[in-house]
Amino acid sequence: MMWLSILAILIGYVVGSISPSYIIGRLVKHVDIRKYGTKNAGTSNAFRTIGFAAGMTTLAFDLGKGALSMLFAHLLGAQFLVLCLTGFAAILGHDFPFYMQFRGGKGAATAWGVIVALIAIFAVQNKFPLEAYIPVFAVSLIALSLIAITKSANLSGFISFPLFMASFLALKISPASIAIALFFLYIIAVSITTIAERKGIKNDMKFAKGNKEIVVWRKSLRFLFLVFPLLYFWLDGKIIMIALAALALIFLIFDLTKIKRNAVIRHLYKKSEMKAKISGITLFLIGALITVLFFQKNIAIMAMVFATIGDNFAVLLGVPFGRHRILKGKSIEGFLACLASSALAGIALMHFLGISIFVVAGGAIASAIAELLSGDYDNVVMAPLAALAMSVIKF
């Protein structure tokens, strides 16, 4: 009925117009968020202006109101076009709330909530096969992890949503997927606009200041250790064990002698490792050797990938963005970076290795926990513990 369609669209606008960043700013900080930072009542400005807790609350609420608007419309029996118009109305409500002189936010998070609701509705209606949502889930993990780590919804959208749009369109070209792609295009346009604004990207990134320098080339070199799980696809385990053992022995000799002070070799070590008896490289090789020795081939390959990628991203993102330190200099942001990067790598490899999503999730979680809790010994324990967790779940 026409009046139900109109009601659904009106509900979308009214729900979308509820501005948590404005309300929290007024009630808690006694400020109008639109007068500070980027001067809009959105998620990124909430993080920047009124704090982490307020930013996370705003993010959750803005996501929720987009999804809730769609749910109301669906329960009212709205057809596909009305569903899309309801989502658009929710975004308009966020951007132009009637009680705030039509000066709200930009609607990226609300649009994301609309997209999530549309995908959920189509999943229930079996519009797409379940396994086709894996790449969509993977890119969602990128987006949410980037928001949690960098506190920048704009940066997250700019990086993640083009990937998300492409992965969703790859599932099946239909009016539904095209509509979802259009919502993504809106988010991308918002992100580009924000970055193009004066100081837009600088304001989002200005808090990225770690308390120690990252030797990026050294971290890049660590990615070369992916050669071991890669070769293990085709080579016998004994050959991989011999290679790992030989390299571990070589680096152990470097560690325990003055060779590591050589003008060339010393660049492989961090400053702190010059005084340590055993380096992180040696510990990683020992951990990889233990993993290959005691666990099934597919499990060992996945665990070594987790240890290589997860540990690197824990540093590359955890150091500059690590604002919430917990254990021995480790941060929540580093933990999230390790977990997300491991999970994404696992999702990419799971079909090749014949491993289920539940096993991947267990291994990624175990690897991230090991990185967080094991201090200076994370290099040696990440792969074995991830392999152990996956073996238990698989059994």
Keywords summarizing the entry:
395 residues, mainly alpha, 2 strands, 71% helix
Structure description:
The protein contains 18 helices and two strands. A two-stranded antiparallel sheet has the order 1-2. It folds into two domains: 2-205, no CATH class; 216-394, no CATH class. It is elongated. The model has no long low-confidence stretch (mean pLDDT 77). It has helices at residues 2-17, 20-29, 43-50, 52-75, 80-95, 108-124, 134-150, 153-169, 175-196, 200-205, 216-222, 227-232, 237-256, 280-294, 297-321, 332-353, 357-373, 378-394; strands at residues 325-327, 330-331. Helix content is 71%, strand content 1%. The relative contact order is 0.08. It is mostly helical and 395 residues long. The N and C termini lie far apart (54 Å). A hairpin with a 2-residue loop joins β1 (325-327) and β2 (330-331).
Quick structural gist:
The chain is mainly alpha-helical and 395 residues long. The protein is 71% helix and 1% strand. It has two domains: 2-205, no CATH class; 216-394, no CATH class.
How would the blueprint of this fold be written?
Blueprint lengths: L1 H16 L2 H10 L13 H8 L1 H24 L4 H16 L12 H17 L9 H17 L2 H17 L5 H22 L3 H6 L10 H7 L4 H6 L4 H20 L23 H15 L2 H25 L3 E3 L2 E2 H22 L3 H17 L4 H17 L1
Antiparallel strand pairs: 1-2
Helix pairs in contact: 1-4, 1-5, 2-3, 2-4, 3-4, 4-5, 4-6, 5-6, 6-9, 7-8, 7-16, 8-9, 13-14, 14-15, 14-18, 15-16, 15-17, 15-18, 16-17, 17-18
